[in-house]
Amino acid sequence: MPGFISILLAFQMVQPYPVERYDVSSGLSSNIVYDIYQDIDDYIWIATENGLNRFDAHEFEIFRHDTSDSLSISSNVVRTILEDNDRNVWVGTANGLNVYKRDADKFIRFRGVPGYEKERVDIQHLFIGAEGNVWFSHRGQGIWRVDAKEFTFHQTKKGWYYNNYMSSDANQTIWYQGHEERHRVLGRYNHQTQQFEVFKWPGEAFPFKLHVGQKSGKIWLDEDLSGLIDNIEIAKVPDLPGDNVPYQLLEDRMGRLWIGTVNYGVYIYHPETGNIDHLKLAPKEGALSNYVRRLFEDRSGRIWIGTRDGLFKYDPLKKPFQHFDPASAPGFKDLESLVMGISEREGEEGIWAGIFSEGLFYTDSDVFELMPFPFENDPAHKGPANQIWSIFHHQNQPGYLWIGTSNGLYQFDTVKKQSVLLTLPRRDFTSPVVFSVIKADANSVWAAGDEDVYQVNTETGKVLKTISLKLYNNLSTVQSLYLSDVGLFIGTEGEGLVLYNTQTEKLKQLHTIYSGMEELSGAAIWTMIGGKDNTLWLGTSNGLYQLETEKMALDHHAVTQSETGLIIYSILVDDENRLWLGTNLGLAMYNPENRDARFYKFEGQKEDYNRRSAVADKNGRFWFGMNHGLRWFYPSEINVNPIIPKVHITKADVFSRQAEAVIDLREKELLKLNREKNTFELHFTALNYTNPKENQYRYRLDGLDEDWVEAGNLRFARYTQVPPGQYVFTVQASNNDGIWNTEGAALSVYVAPEFWQTTWFKILIVLILGLALWLLYRYRVNKLIEMERLRLRIASDLHDEIGSGLSGIALSSDLLNRQLNLEGKPSDTIQRITSSARSLANSLEAIVWLIDPQKDTLEELVLKLTSTANELLIDKSVEYHIDIDEGKKQLVLPSACRRNLYLLIKEAIHNIAKHADAHMVSIKLKTGRKEMIVGIEDDGKGFDVTTISPGNGLETMKRRAQALGSAWSLQSEPGAGTQIKLSVKLP
């Protein structure tokens, strides 16, 4: 018989209101908490003995007094916090009132009030009235109303005592309580009369602070005073156990009354039932954690508790998962924590679990008393008896458990604490292991062996039937069993799903006879559990499958976006038909109706669960075995957190070669950076206080990122060497249950360019280039003008000096020749001198015409051609016509163009006069936008262009056409005249 050891674990009982604690080790500035407030942006502000804290669910930002900074808070002893309608945060301290201006990140101080300037103002509580003004009271100085816009102070009641207190209700009506001349006093501010309505009655001083319920509108007192105040219900605070005295009150949105005490933590009163729950914040009564200074409910229904030893948070949205690790108990530090196999025995409040290689253990589910029951090995079986794979409790056998181990099948008597190893028939080469045990009928169980399945009588322990699977080649170990109306389903580790017909006693591999089940053929089927409507859920090495047993239809459920690597070891179905899955990737909740899945992390990590290690106890709790103990919870309490978290971009870390700078971005819409500081980190947060480590983030820098960057739970984005430009950074976040804030938060980011990349610099460069081009143009124009003047001067000089001289020589020679003729002495020499002089004068006249800038127009060209035609054609009795466009007469031709064109046409006229025997010559100059078409045509005798050898005249014209850049064409036939055509490009 195995030995029996009883060990009491140091395991705290499950709190009905599990809380999370923050203290100085978490980043809180002091463990003494005076006040708690949530602003419009969802930040939590905490007033402490040593500074003001702003909390974003991850980090505490601390504001402290700085003697050298007049814009810092006036005191480190912070009493109370409030936000007005303009988002200013009002802070009452032990040394005056402060207003925190968010946009400027500074405090405005008011250390005194009118009439009491020399007295220190220690502000205990702040309230905001219906008119938007801020109210506070101070001992000896009365009640004050502060205009939140003008910062003016108005005293509404003089005198104040230590035990007096103020409050405000859901309508922001200001109330006060006090004690005057053995009378209790309640005051309500009347906005019409601007006075307090006072209600008095005999009694001792109030034992606790006034509270007006936000949900019910009731005034909570320690006595029943119905009818004292019209339209106001007064409710009595219940008497607390042990005559404990209330100190702080809070009515939450559910109508529960939270009662904070000085030494005993918090009591929660349920008015509809009269029940009172006790929430101890520390095990020992009188501990500083049980001294409650403040109770606060945020907009999501969380209850924040400020004490003298830290800040506590009760979150109804946080999943109440519990963990039990036996290895953490005294004396069990070397215990193997891997739990394989769980069961509940009828009539007990505890759980039986197999701790792998350690044996069978029992733990009471309320007080958690752990009792180990190790098994003795049987040398004949050669298998480790304490390697437990499955535990099963047969309802018709309340005092026994059936244990499947590596050493075989045990029957364990839970009363006598004795175990019996049953002998199961097996072949020599098979293992004695038993992986799974289920109910067969009222008097027997099915046990899965290595390659056989056994039906065992629960009374006698005899094997009633053996189902052999040895006929299937390569069949791995039988892992799981499920009995249904259609037969016994047998899940294997390598040959898929096998169905045993209990009536015909025949086996069928389902994938061989039913289409659509081939994908199960190679899967390991670790667990099976029945669902509604003849559904069988299969947990396999390939994920989750749904089998409709009547139709034998298989459906694969993609529990994750990527099924690769997902192994489902255990399954439980809750009352809402949700599946709870123990997998290698952690605990998951899967809704088969909308096919939505949720994986849970604990301490930021996913846990690894074990095969067929799950049970639902009679109280509705689900238990799952994993590699490090047990995870348990009430599935009815696990709901999706519907709160969409607000997202804030908090700061930027900007990096440069010289230093690193931190820029607060909470109140900014634009981040301006220069080119040297274009590497930066943007930090952001989602204000979800329920498991904030499980928040997910994605971000995008429009203009740089093409798509969203999935950041997981990282709360920053880093960008390196961002090019100059205008960008928009957007971040979105989800809460712990994957509810996304798709609007997110946005920030404009401007990276300034280098000066040479700026618009003004580019404009300046354009202006400089434009000026340079203009100066170059003016220089060229001036040069052209200067050249034109030079041409005009040369033409004038040639005409006046040389031309007149040549004309004088010709005239003198002519006179001399006449005289000699009269004398009968003619001279050939003088005749040649006369001819040469006249020829040189004509040539000089042509040169002067060519260089004279006043002759550059098309009209002058026509006049010159007319003169030339007269000279060459009149003596030959040849008529000619020169046609030009009337509107183009003043067209200016470049001198080179005019020269080559004139000489070309002159050469053509000369050839016609000399060779053509023509009667009519036509010269046409037709001008367009970019070119001038020149046509020269005569009606002379013509010639054969294929046989005639070109002379100097034709070659000269061709060269002139090439100089003009013109396309040249010559057409002529004998007896049909000649046509010359060319196109001249115009400037």
Order of strands across the widest beta sheet? 1-33-32-31-30
Distance between the termini: 121 Å
Mean pLDDT across every amino acid position = 86
Assign a percent range to the helix content.
Answer: 10-25%
Main sheet: strands, sense, barrel: 5 strands, antiparallel
- Percent in strands: 35-45%
Shape: elongated
- Unreliable sequence segments: 1-14
Class by SSE composition: mainly beta
* Count of alpha/pi helices: 6
Number of strands: 70
Radius of gyration: 54 Å
At a glance:
The model is unreliable at 1-14 (pLDDT under 50). It is built from six helices and 70 strands. The chain is mostly beta strands and 987 residues long.
How would you sum up this structure, described in words?
The protein has 987 residues and is mostly beta strands. Helices cover 14% and strands 39% of the residues. It contains 6 helices and 70 strands. It has a 5-stranded antiparallel sheet, with no helix packed on it. A hairpin with a 2-residue loop joins strand 35 and strand 36. Helix 2 packs antiparallel against helix 3. The longest helix has 64 residues. The N terminus is likely disordered.
